[in-house]
Amino acid sequence: MDFFGGLRKGVKARLPAPLRTFSSARGRGRLMKLHFGRPEFHYEAWHHTGDGRLEIGLHLEGSRDDNQEAFDFFRARMVEVKSLLPRAELEPWDRGWSRLYETLRAPQLDEDVLDSAVGCLSDYIVTLQPLLSSWLKEEHGSD
Description:
- This protein has helices at 3-14, 64-75, 78-84, 111-140; strands at residues 23-27, 31-35, 41-48, 53-60, 89-92, 98-105.
- It is an alpha+beta fold.
- It has one domain (3-140): 2-Layer Sandwich (Yope Regulator, Chain: A), CATH 3.30.1460.
- It has a 6-stranded antiparallel beta sheet, covered by helices on one side.
């Protein structure tokens, strides 16, 4: 089974039409990234094989200043975010990056995990992309 290919197709089918225009990339066999024109701010599905978990979330991996501004933007909206994504956590991460994410139990990448991952990643995109686009427009004059 091509788990990440199935995830990309499943998410694309589930998203509303305006959000189906994402770009995607595969990385080293254990992860997939989706973005809407700004690859440094991307949605990621990352299989942590040692922990048996699949991380789903928005990664903020731009410049240190942009990441901090985006982190502050989302931190100020976490009540709203958690009302729609109750398991979401926002945290600073490696190299000045940040992530807004949750993990799913995934000892192996099977059909059950795929179904859960499609729903979870779709929910993250539907919830967070309008906010991310708003922040990008305010801060950088772009979407």
